[in-house]
Amino acid sequence: MATHFLGDTAVLLGRSLRHITRSVDTIITTTITPIAMMLLFVYVFGGAIDTGSVSYVNYMLPGILLITIASGIAYTALRLFLDMKGGIFERFQSMPIARSSVLWAHVLTSLVANVISLVVVVGVALLMGFRSGAGVSAWLAVAGILILFTLALTWIAVIPGLTAKSVDGAGAFSYPLIFLPFISSAFVPTDTMPGPVRAFADNQPVTSIVNTIRALFTRQPIGTDIWTALAWCAGILIVAYIFANISYRRRIS
């Protein structure tokens, strides 16, 4: 059964990846917005924001990486929506393939596309002066957190991809996710914010994730932020996975 699932997922993943290679503009589009934000904040606003001894491009890159992921997962919802409307799912149901492999193929495609986008954004950040003394283990930890965050948001994206009534509805859910890093420690220290805003910023998932990645990049003590970040990512992933599968079973039943 596991071999059957893995084989079916691999075949469907290849199909989805071929669609991406035929429309490279998808990845370009998802990187343009975060790169434009990075340029704007570093070269326009960066000089007015006090981040201590840390250069502003180093300070804000973790938040930009999360925005890159939030921008990219909107296309997962769009691809799912188009497959649903195009009748692809009905055809798959008539074939001897594992049903869950259809969703996993889309999720893994999102993961691959987002990893490519993240590499491009980090490359641009390096050209802008980003530097890190982090070792291999720290970089692997950052990669692990970003992958877990990508999987969590991608499973969220699956839900509107299956349930939306229009193309606009399938992608609109990502806007609040893109906006969330702005009310966090991603771009400015939270202690500069008014009380209620600071309380929200300090206790939402983006802040703990950003703080963890920033500490790993700068080789600073991580503290409890990493456990909070992992708990948020794992919790969101589990809940989103459950609701996504419920939505999927309702659509194909």
Automatic annotation (TrEMBL):
The keyword Transmembrane applies. InterPro entries: ABC2_TM (IPR013525), ABC2_TM_bact-type (IPR047817), ABC_2_transport (IPR000412), Nod_factor_ABC_transporter (IPR051784). Its main location: membrane. The chain crosses the membrane at residues 27-49, 61-82, 103-130, 136-158, 170-188, 226-248. The keyword Transcription does not apply. It is a multi-pass membrane protein. Keywords: Antibiotic resistance, Cell membrane, Membrane, Transmembrane, Transmembrane helix, Transport. This is Transport permease protein. It comes from Planotetraspora thailandica.
